[in-house]
Design brief:
By secondary structure, the chain is an alpha+beta fold. Among the domains are: 73-249, no CATH class; 299-313 and 343-455, no CATH class. The protein contains 6 helices and 20 strands. The longest helix has 36 residues, at 214-249.
């Protein structure tokens, strides 16, 4: 399960053959369309004893943004410098015809700057909306608030206001015709100046163009190129705003549900890719890649500790006391009595166990709903009995319940039980010269034990996840 509000990279899935894998994306974005794209290939059967699983970790989920075409900020800055330059005459004795063109360019630049500012603010609103944030006035500009909200109702309210601004600014009038007229005039002037510089004459010459004016016109042509670039940027930005307005107008009123499932054959490995497409873009972006493999065995190996109800018995000759005073023989030595000490619980550490996952008991839906899978297994192993007076390797056998990588195993514990022999009993007194050590025998007994272990990273078993 992938939560888009709290994106966490999915862990690797290792599942038995013919397992149905479910992938669900909750809290999807209103401005995205999600798709599931599986990609798998055949792999060799696993070697449980020799192959370690390499856990594949997906990239963090990327943020999902609306398509916004922003105008070049450097060109807008250049427009500001052009506006400042057009306020002053080109030359101290500026001809009237040059002044007229300069003032027309100044008006066009002012109109373009006004539109550019509104588009820039609208792009900021879109960027904030992409991050699920509102806006706040910051002097002459606007800025995003610092507390994003993925609440559907709040997002739709924000989108409604942004849609209005986007639609209005996408349709703002720009002086395309005026710019075209100035382009034509200055193009004719440039041709005339070229003719004059080559020694030719102009006939007719309606603008009264002279060689002395060409330097002033050359500066106006430079300013005109900046105006043309800015106009081109604004038109491209308005086209993108129209596309964004279409996206906003078609946002769904409710969050869609995205669930995918597939049943995997044996010995395959690959990924289920979750990709997003944000209209009007046709390209897709990978949100998450979930590695899945059925090249796994039904066998698991784990290590941990077990606690047994078996008691570890030991026997000794202890000094004999009566009424709180030691009992002495005629020579002043302590007389003794046979005593028993028992330690419970018996601790087996470390314990190493092998487990077989029973397929017929691992097909229920609730098992796959557990974190990293739950399941039932047959288990057996050996543990080091460090509690007994004579250290030994004891055997465990039973059924396990798996929660992710942790196994809880109620088991039969086969261990050695130590008892006195040759008719010696607890409480028997041997005076001041008892036999040492006391004669004992060991026999196998079966007791109840609980084991807790962790799956070792070998290439088997049901270390699957959802």
């Amino acid at each position: 399960m992938i939560d888009r509000n709290k994106p966490v990279s999915p862990v690797s899935l290792g599942v038995p053959p013919r397992t149905t894998v479910y992938v669900e994306v909750i809290n999807p974005r209103l401005n995205e369309t999600l798709q599931f794209v599986p990609s798998f290939s055949k792999v060799m059967p696993p070697d449980v004893l020799g192959t370690a699983i390499q856990t594949a970790v997906a990239n963090p989920l990327p943020s999902l943004l609306l398509s916004v075409k922003t105008s070049s900020s450097s060109r807008f800055e250049a427009l500001e410098s052009v506006m400042e330059a057009l306020k002053n005459p080109i030359t101290p004795q500026e001809p009237q015809r040059v002044k007229d063109l300069r003032e027309q360019q100044q008006k066009v630049a002012t109109d373009l700057a006004d539109v550019a500012k509104k588009i820039s603010q609208t792009n900021t609103e879109l960027s904030c909306l992409q991050a699920y944030e509102g806006t706040v006035q910051n002097g002459a500009n606007i800025a995003c608030v610092s507390s994003p909200s993925t609440d559907k109702t709040a997002f739709l309210e924000l989108a409604q206001g942004v849609t209005k601004d986007v639609t209005q600014n996408a349709m703002l009038k720009v002086p395309v015709g005026h710019v075209a007229v100035l382009d034509g005039i200055l193009s004719d002037v440039a041709k005339g100046c070229t003719t004059l510089q080559e020694g030719g004459t102009l006939n007719p010459n309606p603008m009264g163009l002279s060689s002395a004016d060409c330097e002033s016109y050359l500066k106006l042509s430079y300013y005109q190129k900046r105006l043309d670039d800015t106009l081109s940027d604004i038109l491209a930005a308005q086209k993108a705003l129209q596309a964004s307005a279409l996206v906003l107008a078609n946002l769904p009123d409710s969050l869609p549900s995205y669930t995918y499932c597939m049943t995997l054959p044996k010995n395959v490995s690959g990924t289920i890719n979750v990709v997003t497409q944000i209209p009007p873009l046709t390209t897709t972006t990978t949100v998450a890649s979930i590695p899945v493999s059925t090249g796994v065995s039904h066998w698991l190996v784990s290590t941990g500790v077990a606690f047994s109800f078996a008691g570890a018995n030991s026997y000794s000759n202890a000094p004999l006391f009566k009424n709180g005073h030691p009992v002495l023989d005629s020579s002043g030595k302590n007389e003794t009595i046979v005593t028993q000490s028992t330690t419970r619980p018996t601790v087996l550490a470390p314990a190493v166990m092998g487990h077989y996952m029973m397929p017929w008991l691992n097909r229920w839906t609730w098992e796959s709903s557990c974190p990293r899978h739950c399941g039932f297994l047959l288990s057996g192993g050996v543990g080091a009995n460090l509690t007994a007076s004579q250290k030994s390797a004891d055997f465990l056998g039973g059924a396990s319940f798996q929660i992710g990588s942790v196994l809880i195993t109620p088991a039969a514990h086969v261990t050695w039980d130590v008892r006195l022999t040759q008719g010696i009993t607890i409480g028997e007194q041997f005076g001041s010269n008892p036999p040492s050590p006391l004669p004992t025998k060991r026999s196998l007994v079966t007791k109840f034990a609980i084991g807790i272990s962790y799956v070792l990273p070998f290439g088997g078993g049901s270390t699957s996840s959802k």
